[in-house]
Amino acid sequence: MIDKDASSLRYKARRLRPYVWEIPPDAKPGMLVPARILASDGLFKSMDDGVFDQVTNVARLPGIVQHAICMPDGHWGYGFPIGGVAAFDPETGVISPGGIGFDINCGMRLLRTNLTEDQVRPKLASLMDRLYELVPCGVGCKGVLRLSGSEYRDIMTSGAGWVARRGYGRARDLEHTEERGCIRGADPDKVSDHALKRGLDQLGTLGSGNHYLEVQVVRPENVFDPVAAKAFGIDRPNQVCVMIHCGSRGFGHQIATDYLKTFIPIMAKHGIRTGDKELACCPFAEPEGKSYFAAMNCAANSAFANRQMITHLIREGFSKTFGQNDIEIGLDVVYDVAHNIAKLETYEIDGVKRQLLVHRKGATRSFGPGRGFLPEDYVDVGQPVIVGGSMETGSYLLVGSATAMTETFGSTLHGSGRTMSRTKAKSMVRGETLKESMSQRGIVIRAASMSGLAEEAGFAYKDISEVVNTVHDLGISRRVVRFLPIGNIKG
Questions:
Q1: Distance between CA atoms of residues 364 and 173, nearest Å
Q2: Parallel, antiparallel, or unpaired for β 82-88 and 477-490?
Q3: Residue 245's CB: how many other CB atoms inside 10 A?
Q4: CA-to-CA distance for 76 and 179, rounded, in angstroms?
Q5: With contact defined as beta carbons under 8 Å apart, do 338 and 373 qualify?
Q6: Angstrom distance (rounded) from CA 38 to CA 112
Q7: Per-state percent for the chain, helix, strand, coil, to nearest 5
Q8: What pLDDT is attached to residue 4?
């Protein structure tokens, strides 16, 4: 629930510099650090009151370092605003499922092809039909693999590597995945049996909501940084790419649900008051905090595995449609990155290098050139940042920067951000009408639910170019290319 005084917080924010607004710690009782909102003037004015309430609640959490942050795509969420970033001291700070999200490691994967729009257009409808048949989507969808409990436990600790080793991927796929598709420190013993059962049949599935599989094109006028684009393999006019947006599905949701219940009595024990029950948390140094972190990493690894399996299915669909093997078509992984996660990372704070627990809730890692965590072929250019837009307006590929390392704990935005609820969007358009309208504009849609399709109408989201231009002008990530949708599969 949004605090009744939340609207006044907007007027307590002062503009530090272009695109950076700061709410001081005396704006709300209990704030330990300032809260920062990164936004253009227009985006700042249009942000809902919930963002201001939630980001200032985050600033009250024990052990928070420097400031709480909300990205320009920010909007009201569960606990943290979606678009929220905060870093905590591992010894004195907390870990909070509300700062990570229920869909742990919801993230993006981008594939490039050797095909152009002219080659794909004649077979686009057939391709979308094939992909829709191969990649399960919608509420309660199940994957093609039937896994045993021991196999799924292996996925929890091995991530995308488990899938690739069984013939559903290439070695290069792992090289171009955050943490090579496997985050260390996962412990299946910290996961409930109920969570495991929910995950067993979901490998290789999109799910529902705002998750999607999209076929896209890069037109020459939408290449902003040719050098970075070439480094990422996007180097031909009207090149076709494929973007995947999904996460750990019911498995991650159950882990978050389990530990939120666990953390409520622990907060009382430690005298922690957050002002919002959705910000239930636990001192990270406590056994329960470490257990959640280990379980969260299990979910993160399952999400990497999920996107890897979907990649295999996409390759199969393209190969069958175009009569070529997937190597000839390309379908190389440009990158795969999480945007719902907490990670231990090192930053320089007041001249001292410190390990921090960085929460990103609807925010993407944005590491600049020279970082050791990057694939060898990206070290000189920086980390790819995949920013999903609406199915009508397109998406972006950005690149990380050194500025993000000093200003935003190596973070940037993750998408365009909603402007209205799903209920309101459905009241404004019918799914069938939207599908027909998009078809007339050359965008082929396949959807498991017309109601779900209406929820994701383009008008329900912020202007993707405005939010991207904000982070570009701030310097925390830089525009590389814009993708325009030509085919989309929605759950």
A1: 19
A2: unpaired
A3: 23
A4: 29
A5: no
A6: 31
A7: 40, 25, 35
A8: 56
Instruction: Output Rg (C-alpha) for the chain, integer angstroms.
Output: 21
Instruction: Name the pairing type of β-strands 444-447 and 477-490.
Output: parallel
CA distances from 39 to 42, 65, 157, 373, 481 (A): 8, 21, 38, 29, 21
Q: What is the pLDDT of residue 5?
A: 67
User: Is 75 tagged catalytic?
Assistant: no
DSSP 280: -
Q: Are 99 and 359 in contact (CB under 8 A)?
A: yes
Among 42, 100, 116, smallest CA distance to 72 is for 42
> What is the CA 125 to chain-centroid distance, rounded?
28
How far is the C-alpha of 378 from the C-alpha of 178, rounded, in Å? 12
The rounded distance, in Å, linking the Cα atoms of 379 and 390 is 30
| CA dist list (Å): 394 to 135, 158, 468, 472, 475 | 21, 33, 12, 17, 22
Q: Helix or strand or coil: residue 216?
A: strand
CA distances from 484 to 143, 410, 479 (A): 28, 27, 15
Listing DSSP states for 7-32 in one string gives HHHHHH-EEEETTEEEE-GGGSTT--
Task: Report pLDDT for 8.
Answer: 86
pLDDT for 491: 83
Q: What is the largest CA-CA distance in the chain?
A: 64
SS (H, E, C) 57-124: HHCCCCCECCCEEEEEEEECCCCCCEEEEEEECCCCCEECHHHCCCCCCCEEEEEEEEEEHHHHHHHH
Question: CA-CA distance, 172 to 184, in Å (whole number)?
Answer: 19
Residue type present at position 254? Q
Q: Let me know the angle formed at the C-alpha of 384 by 383 and 388, rounded to the nearest 5 degrees.
A: 145
Q: Which one of the listed residues 312, 339, 359, 414 is annotated catalytic?
A: 414
Q: Which tokens sit at 473?
A: 């002008």
- What residue spans define the domains of the chain? 6-102+258-281+343-364
Taking CA atoms, 228 is separated from 106, 225, 461, in Å, by 25, 6, 27
Averages of pLDDT over runs of 10 residues in the chain (491 residues) are 70 96 96 98 95 97 98 96 98 98 98 98 98 95 93 98 96 96 98 97 94 97 98 97 97 97 95 92 98 98 98 98 96 98 96 97 96 90 96 95 97 95 93 94 95 93 96 98 97 83
